Amino acid sequence: MLFFKHAVMTLLLVGLLGLGIAAWVIIGGRFDVSVAAQLPQPVHDLIHQTRVNAVRREAHQLQAPTIDLDDDAVLFQAVTGFQSMCADCHHPPGGQPSALAQGLNPPPANLSEAADKRSLEELFWVTKHGIRMSAMPAWGTTHEDAELWAIAALLQRFPMLSASDYADILQAAEAAGLEHHHP
Ligand code: HEC
Fold first, then answer.
1. How far is the CA of 109 from the centre of ligand 1 (A)?
2. What total number of domains does the chain contain?
3. Residue 14 belongs to what domain range?
4. Which residue has the CA at smallest separation from atom 30 of ligand 1?
5. Average pLDDT, whole number, for the chain?
6. Which of 24, 27, 28, 132 has the largest CB neighbor count within 10 A?
């Protein structure tokens, strides 16, 4: 009985101490909210691996439609979409991280490398749904699936594209866009 009393008292004290520490951190604002703050490496790795596994699991339920990047209309839509929606954070092939990208934590993935490691469905899923607690937006809120599938398919080509290949495609797309406005 006496032992039981001691156990309850100890638990209460530990609980109070925990509350005290929480109040010290929360009310006192003793937490580094800056972008420079780094998680301990094992915690970072665990979160990263969970993200990769979660995306794989979600993407597993998807079935990619046929996307014909040899059709210029599809290719051009993908490249202009990438340029306007993604390139500020994820540099195109052969590029360098922008000032914006350098200021983000976690940093935007190098998509030429990611494309080698992820399936088409995984690339699409992230593009559509984003990654919370990171700067990666959910483009599915404002864009049609077909457009996002085309961008995901273009990402798959990134490892094969040089900076000038990308620039050529973008230029051709922009020229085609101008023609479209002035038939
Ligand atoms: C405002 C910045 C920002 C924009 C704009 C942005 N992204 Fe991201 N993206 C990120 C960040 C940051 C990550 C890394 C998230 C993480 O590590 O958890 C990321 C991750 C990704 C990944 C996952 C890569 C991997 O390793 O699995 C893909 C795919 C991706 N983005 C595609 C796109 C596409 C396609 C667009 C445009 C339609 C886009 N992103 C626009 C910031 C951005």
1. 6
2. 2
3. 1-31
4. 127
5. 95
6. 24
